[in-house]
Amino acid sequence: EKVIRTLRRFVLLNEHQATAIALWVAHTHAFVAAECTPYLSINSVEKQSGKTRLLEVLEFLVANPWLTARTSAAALKNKIEAEHPTVLLDESDTAFKSDKEYAESLRNILNSGYRKRGVYSTSVKVNGNWVNKDFSTFSPKAIAGIGNLPDTVQDRSILIHMKRATPSEKVEAFKERDARPELEPIQAELAEWAVSHVDALEVARPDMPQELSDRAQDTWEPLMAIADLAGGVWPERAREAAIDLSSREATDSDSLQVRLLSDIKGIFEEKGINEIRTSELVRSLVDMEVAPWGDLRGKPLDARSLARLLKGFFVKP
């Protein structure tokens, strides 16, 4: 509860997002008990939506934090191998749009680091000779950026989609010097709790919501184990959050909405316009060759479906 109050004090989050993040924060202190570690994919379609602020708050709550906006693949694998930190990676959209070799290395490290046995294999020089070495990549990670992560990384993540606050939505300004003495005791409590409960979490086999895919069940299992151990309202709260954020229906909807915004942006840029009639926009979307809009659940996108998909972003005619 302290973590949830802290998160929502400084960052605009809904109840299910705050629940998922709070459980994930506890997980970072006991991730050694889990077979896999869920990532947090913190994204938005625009700047100034609170992504970096969330990472800054998490830095004072998670275990062994490492907050970075850009790091080389070599530094990332070495840091994880040596310290198994909670990686708080900002500006992921920039990283994945950089040179192809770096983006591929980063993706491979994130893909493998989801499971305890995950390694990144590369050649290193030892006594003047090149030898193959496996670097452990297993550690908790929160990754923030505009737009979705690569599919293979997104598939290992809990999506926290953030929106820019409206004038009526207020959160408290986060000042590190003031927050540190308040947040560090919470961080210490979590660390103490984890030491006492690692054994119980290691043998836990929580019941998982059937609305989740097999991958999503794996992703949420460590958090469900923590919720069940906490008892009270937490088991029900955790399962409601999982269904809301990671059910098949929820993830399909989120990815579709982000794709829609991207495709609309492309249409505006291609036509060199800043406004368009709904009918023309629908027609342009449906006519796109490599896109889902011509066959959306068995029928083409229409004006009503377009409005429904854009409603969550406060976009309307």
What features would you describe in this structure?
This protein has helices at residues 2-10, 15-29, 51-58, 73-83, 92-96, 100-112, 151-154, 176-203, 214-230, 234-246, 248-271, 278-286, 303-311, and strands spanning 39-44, 65-68, 86-89, 119-126, 129-136, 141-146, 157-161. It has 317 residues and is an alpha/beta fold. The strands form two sheets. It has a five-stranded parallel β-sheet. Strands 4-5 form a two-stranded antiparallel ribbon. Strand 2 (65-68), helix 4 (73-83) and strand 3 (86-89) form a beta-alpha-beta unit. The chain is globular. 33% of the residues are buried. The mean pLDDT is 89.
Write the H/E string, N to C: HHEHEHEHHEEEHEHHHHHH
Distance from first to last alpha carbon: 40 Å
Sum up the overall morphology in one term. globular
Question: For the report, how would you describe the main beta sheet?
Answer: 5 strands, parallel
Proportion of residues in β-strands: 5-15%
Helicity level: 40-55%
Low-confidence stretches: none
What is the average of the pLDDT values? 89
- The total count of strands amounts to 7
Strand order of the largest sheet: 2-3-6-1-7
Radius of gyration: 21 Å
The structure class reads alpha/beta
Count every helix, treating DSSP H or I runs of 4 or more residues as helices. 13
